[in-house]
Each structure stands twice: as C-alpha cells, then as structure tokens.
Amino acid sequence: MFGGLGNLAGMLKQAKSLQENMQKMQAELAAQRYEGDAGAGLVRAEVNGKMELLRVKIDPKAAADVELLEDLVVAATAAATRKAQEAVREQMARLTGGLNLPGLTDLLGQAT
User: I want to staple 55 with a disulfide (CB 3.0 to 4.6 A). Which of 46, 48, 61, 76 is the partner?
Assistant: First the structure.
C-alpha cells in the first residue's frame, strides 16, 4: 500500500538535487562573459549569462555615420546575446542529461 511512497521520496530527492544544480549553474552563467562584434570589430558588446548588456565598445571610426553605428550596436549586442543563449542551452543539456524539459529554460531565465 505504501510502496509508492519510497518512489515519491526518491523523486523529491532528485528534484532537490536538480534545483541545487540549477542554482549553481545560474551563478556560474551569471559570472560568464560573452562578446559579440559587428562591423569587423568596430563595435563590440559584452553580455553575461543572464543576458544583461554589460559593456559596449565603439571604435571612433564608427562614429562618423550615426545610423550605421546604431545598427552595429544592435548587431553586436545580438551576437553576444546569441552566444550567451547557446551557453545556457549547453549547460541545460548537461544538467538534464539531454532531456528536453519544457519550460525549464524559461524558468532558468526568470530565476537568474
């Protein structure tokens, strides 16, 4: 009658372990830096694993054309963000053993 309780306890232990591992991974990702560039390096953007823009570096040569500069800033930021997102996906795959758990990546993004 109570045989399923042992299984439940095991599942709860696994869930707690997964939660602890996720918290550790979130901290590691938040400390990571990802750089993207645009315009052959005229603009460089740096984001962290929480997808926060940390820094933008602009070569003075890019300042002559404001519209181009604006486009380069957007492109560099997008490139850095893509690198960070890919790192998050890789870490999630490692953490979950390759299982695709719907909503887990969203949860990770909200919890960081």
Answer: 46
Ordered per-residue pLDDT tens for the chain, 112 residues: 455 666 888 888 888 888 888 888 888 888 999 999 999 999 999 999 999 999 999 999 999 999 999 999 999 999 999 999 999 888 888 887 766 666 655 555 444 4
Evaluate whether 75 touches 56 at the Cβ level (below 8 Å).
no
Structural domains of the chain, ranges and CATH numbers in brackets: 3-111 (3.30.1310.10)
**What element of type H or E holds 46?**
strand 43-48
Using only the alpha carbons of the chain, give its radius of gyration. 20
Note the pTM of the prediction, 2 decimals.
0.71
